[in-house]
Specification:
Chain lengths: 80, 476
C-alpha cells in the first residue's frame, strides 16, 4: 500500500467521523477542520485503527494530528 | 516569594541585571541559585523535598533512555509513583484519612486514622506535574534525557514558573537553558509590558473583586438572590484575573531574560463551547491532562462505547481534585466532566443546526452558555464547603435583594472603577483577538503607547490593592 492509497482510504474514514465535508490531503491538519479537536481525535484514531487493522500506542496518537503524519504512522504500522 | 511583594520588587531587577552581567556559561547556575532563594523565601527546609524529587526523576529519565522493553516502563513507574506519592502525602493524605474515618464511622467501626497536618509545599502540584511531563516525554521518545543534573534542576525550579506554572513541557524549556540569551531591548520592553498587564489584572481587578467575593462567600447564609449571583460572576473574573495575571507576570519575567514560556490563557470567556473553553483556560494544565490522562484512558477503553464521555468524566474529576483535597473541587471537576459529556453528544446535532442558524447568533448563544456554565461551576470552586455551595445554588433565585449590592464590602466608587477596569480588560482582549494585540499596539505612535503604559501604571498605583494578597493558585 502506498501513501497515496492510505490517504485515499482515509477519505472514507474522515467522511464517517466528521459532519462537515472534508477534502483529505496530505497537508490537511487539525487546524483546518473545526470538528477535529482532542475529543474527536480519539474517535478518528479508533476509526483509523479499525479501517487499517492497526493499533497505535499512547505516545503516537497526539503526534498524528495531520494527515501526512497519520499516513506515515499507518504505513509504519502496516510494514511492521 | 510573592510577585506582588516588596521582596520581589528588589529580587527581580537584581536577578535580571546579574543574569545579563554574568558570562553565559555561568547563567544556568546563577538562575538555579536565584530560584532556590525565591522558593526558600517561604519554608526553606522544603527545598530539600524538591532536590530529592529532582534527583529521582533525573536518574529515572536516564534509566528510561538507557533501558529497553519492560524496564523502561518500570523506571517510568518509579518516577510516576515518586511524584504522585509526594502529592498524596502532602496534599491528599489528611483528606483521605478524614473521609475514610467517616466511612468507618458509618459502618459503626471506631478505627481512627490521625491526620498528619503537614503544610503543603508551595507550588507542589505544579512542579510535580512538570517533572512528570519530563519523564513521560522521555519515555515517549520526544525528549532526550538531560545529562546535566543542574540543567534538569533548573527546568523544575526556574523561578518565574516554579510555584504556579505555566507547567512547561521539557521540549520547550530545557534547550533554552543551554542557549545564549543576549540583552535584547525588545524582549525587555515586551516582558515588562506583560508584567505590567499582569499586575493590573491581579492588583486592580482580582484583589478588588476578592473583597466583595470574600464578603459574600464567607457568610453566604446571610444573602440570597442578586448578591449571591453578583459575587459568583465577580469570582469568575477574580479567579481569571488572579491566575492569568500571575501567568502574565511569570511569562513576562522570563521574557525579559529572553526565555519563552508557553501561553497559559487565551481569552477564555470568549469561548463558544466548553471544549473551546478548556483550550483557552489554564492551557498548560489542560493540555497535560489531555495528553497524559484523557488520551491514555480513552485509548485503554477504545473498544467501549462511550469511551470519550467516560474518559472526559474521569479526567475532569482528577483535574478538579488536582486543585485541592476537598469535595468542592471534585464536584467542580465532575461538573466540567458533565459539561464535556453533554458537549460530546450535543456537538454533532449543534453542527447540523449551525448550518440553518445565523453564525453570529449561534456563537453568541454558545458564548453566553459557556460563560454561565463556568460561573456555575465557580460556586463549587470558591464555596468554603459543599454545604455552602449547595446553599448558594438553592438561593440564587429569585433575583431579589438588589438593594444590598451597595453593602458588599466595596464602595460605589470602587465598584465603578472596577467595572471600568474590567471594560479595559475586555477591550484589550477584543483587540488581541481581532487586531493582533501587541503587534497592533507596537504600530502606534510612541506617545500613544506610553499613554497606555502610564494609564495602567497609575491605575495600579491609585486603585491597586497593596495588601499583598496571595495568588489563589499558590495554594494548589
Amino acid at each position: 500500500m502506498t501513501k497515496a492509497d492510505v490517504v485515499s482510504k482515509l477519505q472514507d474514514v474522515f467522511d464517517n467521523v466528521f459532519v462537515e465535508d472534508v477534502k483529505v490531503t496530505e497537508e490537511l491538519s487539525a487546524n483546518d477542520v473545526t470538528e477535529w479537536d482532542s475529543l474527536s481525535h480519539i474517535t478518528l484514531i479508533v476509526a483509523v485503527e479499525k479501517a487499517f487493522k492497526v493499533r497505535f500506542g499512547m505516545g503516537e496518537v497526539e503526534a498524528a494530528n495531520n494527515v501526512g503524519g497519520l499516513a506515515d504512522l499507518i504505513l509504519k504500522k502496516l510494514q511492521a | 516569594m510573592l510577585f506582588n511583594s516588596v521582596e520581589f520588587l528588589l529580587f527581580f531587577p537584581i536577578v535580571t541585571t546579574l543574569f545579563f552581567v554574568l558570562p553565559n556559561r555561568w547563567r544556568w547556575l546563577f538562575l538555579l541559585i536565584a530560584s532556590c532563594i525565591f522558593y526558600m523565601a517561604w519554608i526553606p527546609i522544603y527545598v530539600t523535598i524538591l532536590f530529592l524529587i529532582i534527583i529521582v526523576d533525573y536518574v529515572a529519565a536516564r534509566k528510561i533512555e538507557a533501558a529497553s522493553g519492560g524496564m523502561r516502563k518500570l523506571f517510568l513507574l518509579v518516577s510516576v509513583l515518586a511524584n504522585v506519592s509526594l502529592l498524596a502525602l502532602f496534599k491528599y493524605y489528611d483528606f483521605f484519612c478524614e473521609n475514610f474515618t467517616e466511612l468507618l464511622h458509618l459502618l459503626h467501626l471506631t478505627w481512627k486514622f490521625p491526620p498528619l497536618n503537614l503544610i503543603l509545599p508551595i507550588g507542589l502540584s505544579f512542579h510535580t506535574f512538570q517533572a512528570l511531563a519530563y519523564t513521560i516525554e522521555v519515555y515517549n521518545g520526544k525528549q532526550r534525557a538531560e545529562t546535566q543534573l543542574g540543567i534538569y534542576a533548573l527546568y523544575v525550579m526556574f523561578y518565574p514558573q516554579l510555584v504556579a506554572g505555566p507547567i512547561e513541557r521539557p521540549q520547550n524549556l530545557i534547550h533554552q537553558f543551554k542557549e545564549d540569551h543576549p540583552f535584547e531591548a525588545h524582549n525587555v520592553v515586551s516582558g515588562l509590558r506583560l508584567m505590567l498587564w499582569g499586575f493590573f489584572k491581579k492588583m486592580v481587578i482580582a484583589d478588588r473583586l476578592g473583597i466583595l467575593v470574600n464578603h459574600v462567600y464567607n457568610q453566604p447564609h446571610e444573602y440570597s438572590g442578586i448578591p449571591l449571583l453578583l459575587a459568583t460572576y465577580c469570582f469568575a473574573y477574580q479567579v481569571y484575573c488572579d491566575f492569568s495575571g500571575y501567568s502574565d507576570i511569570a511569562i513576562g519575567a522570563a521574557r525579559v531574560m529572553g526565555f519563552g514560556l508557553i501561553r497559559n490563557f487565551n481569552s477564555p470567556f470568549a469561548a463558544t463551547t466548553i471544549q473551546d473553553f478548556w483550550n483557552r483556560w489554564h492551557i498548560s494544565l489542560s493540555s497535560f491532562f489531555r495528553d497524559f490522562v484523557y488520551v491514555p484512558i480513552a485509548l485503554t477503553f477504545r473498544a467501549v462505547p462511550g469511551r470519550n464521555a467516560l474518559a472526559a468524566l474521569i479526567t475532569m474529576a482528577l483535574a478538579g481534585l488536582w486543585h485541592g483535597a476537598n469535595w468542592t473541587y471534585v464536584i467542580y471537576g465532575l461538573l466540567h466532566g458533565f459539561y464535556l459529556v453533554v458537549y460530546i453528544y450535543w456537538r454533532q446535532l449543534s453542527l447540523r443546526l449551525a448550518k440553518h442558524v445565523d453564525r453570529r447568533l449561534h456563537q453568541l448563544f454558545g458564548l453566553l452558555f459557556t460563560f454561565n456554565a463556568f460561573c456555575f461551576s465557580c460556586i463549587f470552586f470558591r464555596g468554603n464547603s459543599v454545604t455552602d455551595a449547595v446553599w448558594i445554588v438553592e438561593h440564587l433565585f429569585p433575583l431579589n435583594n438588589a438593594d444590598k449590592v451597595g453593602d458588599l464590602g466595596l464602595t460605589g466608587g470602587e465598584i465603578l472603577m472596577t467595572i471600568v477596569a474590567i471594560m479595559i480588560l475586555e477591550f484589550v482582549q477584543y483587540m488581541e483577538r481581532n487586531k493582533g494585540g501587541v503587534a497592533y499596539l507596537e504600530k502606534q505612535k510612541l506617545t500613544t503607547r506610553w499613554i497606555c503604559y502610564y494609564t495602567l501604571f497609575f491605575y495600579i498605583l491609585v486603585l491597586g490593592e497593596f495588601g499583598g494578597a496571595r495568588f489563589i493558585y499558590f495554594q494548589f
